[in-house]
Amino acid sequence: MHAHFEQHRYHMHSHDSYSFGLTDHGAQTFGCRGSRRTSAAGMVMAFNPDEPHDGRAENDLGFTYRIIHIDPSLVSEVLSDQAGRPAGLPLFTEPVLYDPVLAGALNRMYSSLAPEATALARDEALAETVAAMVRRAAMSAPAAVTQPMPNVQRARDLLDEEYLAPLSADDLATAAGCSRFALYRAFKTTYGMTPSDYQRQLRLRSARRLLRAGVAPAEAAVQSGFADQAHLTRWFRRYYGVTPGTYQRA
Question: Which residue ranges does the record assign to the HTH araC/xylS-type domain (predicted)?
Answer without folding.
Answer: 153-250
